[in-house]
Each structure stands twice: as structure tokens, then as C-alpha cells.
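Suppose a colleague, Dr. K., hands you the sequence of a protein chain of 466 amino acids and asks what its three-dimensional shape might be. Before reaching for any lab equipment, you can write down a predicted structure in C-alpha cell form. Begin with the sequence itself:
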Amino acid sequence: MKKLFPVILSGGSGDRLWPKSRKSLPKQFIKFHKIGNLFTHTLKRVETLNNCQNLIIASSRDYEYLIKKNLNNFVKNSSMILEEISRNTSPAIYFSALKALEKSKDAILCIMPSDHWIEDNANFKLVVKNAIREAEKGFWVTLGIKPTNPSTGFGYIKTKKKNDTNVLDVLQFTEKPNLSTAEEFLHDKNYFWNAGIFVVSANQIVKSFLKINPILEKSIKNAWSNRDVMSNINVIKKSDMIFLQNISIDKAILENEQFIKLIPFSGGWSDIGNWDSMNVLLEKFNEDKKNQMLLESKNTDIHSSDRLIVGIGLENITIVDEVDATLIFKKGYSEKVKSIVQNLKEANKAIAIEHTYEYRPWGKFEVLLDSKECKVKRLFIDPFKSLSYQYHLKRSEHWTVVSGEAKVILDGNSTTHSVGESIIIKSEVKHSLSNQKEDILIVIEVQYGTYFGEDDIIRISDPYNR
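The predicted structure, expressed as C-alpha cells, is then:
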């Protein structure tokens, strides 16, 4: 597979798995009990394809450090395409094609989401090999999954059945149908779920865009030309992305493309698109149930990160409990979770997109209290990492070391502080915090002032180029 360029799309926010998944830490980067995180699972699949050679990752600029953290155990020379704002899959796929063509005029892309679960990697590799042969003929090749239930959460693909081959002609794409239509598709052998996994040459991507959507093609190519390039990282600027049409590859190209083939895939696939599919997956791996207790209950699943959840007399219920939000819904209604998240966004509720904790290149922080008077965080600084040298205009801070040893710089003067010692940082004072030891440094930070937003950070220097 010398010409193969695996492409991982990893910009989604996973709203249907709220409150576990949110924009600040979406589902592909969350570590689930016994299955790990889905992004790493995808990397392992790519490793079986071609040892992660020529890997391209298209994602949001917000997830740069999360991607790098997960890449450490696999490959360090991948190409990253980071969009400052998202515009669905069409721009990401076209950017990836342009990047691949910079390295090889014969590049074949295997495009896959980062949040799918596939159990049989050997079968996946075999199917991709077969798909490459069709892609070399100028076809888009999509992987199709035989429906097992009348799901309204998947797109469907209608094919023309052939007797002499496992490569099928695609006749029609159908977006998420209603229940009665999905039931019809379930009993029609010519319909498949759209797995959202494509194999296609980079040149064919360009040809399809020029033929079917030339206006979008021109604006995407313009955004690519204006990108910032830093080693293997390509940053697509917000000023260019904002003018791109927000549209999926299915809508922009594939629904109007004649040269499409489908290869059926039966390797234990799930897109983990909602809590119903997550329940099924975790049940296979005997999910740890130490934080739940059920009595006289049937078909009930509980996901609790911390607290003990007790249920009595429940039936067909899913409960998802996080520190700041609890979701309860009747099974079969998991697709409605996205609507709830949208309602929260429209009401400007930060809980829709933000966790009480957030990861940073230096570690993570957890919000313990957020009030009008103050904001309290617990900072976890990884070994030999440091925060940027910065200052604030609208707040002061009080740091207390609770574990480890902290090196603090205030207006250029360096001091070291041990457990129990405190440091006061007035507003407009330049400061930095670092961990020079092999153990994690934990600091309680109390902010007080008139504003506690993350945008009140003026960086003087930053080792992570933010």
C-alpha cells in the first residue's frame, strides 16, 4: 500500500453523547472503561493498514494537543490539517487531497472518522485493498454495513446487485430516514448503512469537486493557499473558513457523483453515534458497574463517572451522570440528545460545550467552584511541563501547592514552592508556573476580580505556540 494515505477526520463534537462528550473534550478523545479512547483505536486500525505511513489528520485547531498526545505512541511524522472553525467534511477531505498530492501524484486516500469502532482490523485491511483497486480506476469507493435494525440515525445507500462480484454500483444516497422508511430499507437487500469510510484517489477528489461543485472547490483551494504552515502542521485560518459552505461530502459531491462503488463490510462496525450504540458496545466488554446499583429494574444502563447511582423499578432507561449534569432518557430516544444540546447552546449555557475540566498541552485543570466572587481550579501540571509566561488584566490569582514542587516566575524573578506554600499573583503581573520534577504537580488556583474567562490571558511567550 505504498500509495495509500490514511486520512482521519477528527473534528466532531459528539453532541449525541452529551454530557460525557462536549466540544471541549469530544467523544473521540474520551477514555471509556476497557475500550480506551476511540481516536487511539482508529490509530491502531491505521497501523494495521500501512504502519501509519503518510498519515493525515484533519481536525479542529482546538484539538491539536490532544492529537499530539495520542500520536506519541504511534507516529510523529503525520501531517495535521487544523481548521480554526469547522465546516463539515467537504473542506476537510479536499484539504487532505491537496496535502496528499504534494507528496504523490498517485495518492489514494482512505478516509475514516476517528470515532468508529471496528473489531476486525484484518478484514478491514482486506476490504481496503479491494477498494484501492477500484479507486485506481477512478471510482469513489464507500464501505457499506448491512443494517441490523431500522435505525433512523444512519444514512443509507441503495445499490444495484451484481452476481459475479462483491463490488456494487451505488444508485442513491438517503439521509437519516424516518422509522417507517428505515423499516423498508431493513428488508431490502440492496440497502446498506453509510459507514462514512471512503477510498478514493486524490486526483478523483479534485475532478469531482471541479465538476460538481466548482464554487466550493475554488473557495477551499483559496483557503488552502492562505494557510499557515509550521513544519507538519497546516492551519486553515478562520478568516478563510468562515466563507466556506458548511456541508458534508455526501451532500456536496457524492449525491451527484456517478462513479461510486460500494463494498460491503462486516467487521464488527459501530459508529458510536449515540448512547444506545455505546450501551451495546460497553455491554460486550462487561462495563465496570461499581458506581451503580439496580433493584427490580430491566434493560437499564447507568454511566456514572463518580457518584453512586441507585435505581429501583426502572425499565428501558439510560442514565448518564457527570459532575455538573445528569441525562435521563427512555431507550430509543437517544437521537433526541442532540436537540437538547442545541437548546442549551441557544440558551447560552456553557454546560452544553464545556466540561468542568479541560485538557491543556501542559496537563489539565478542573473547575471546583465558579461564582460571581471567585473561580477555583485544581491544576494538574505534567512532569517537565510549564504554563505560558502570561498576565491578566481583570483578575488576580492565589496559588497553593498541594502536591509536588512548583517553580514560579513573577516579573522575571524565579522562586520554588513546596506543599502547603502559597503565591499571590496580582493582575498585570507577568507570571509562569512549571513542574521540574518527575511527579505530577497539583496546584489549587483561586481567581478573584471582575472577570474569569479564559480569554483574559495575555501571553508573553508560550512553548506550545498558541
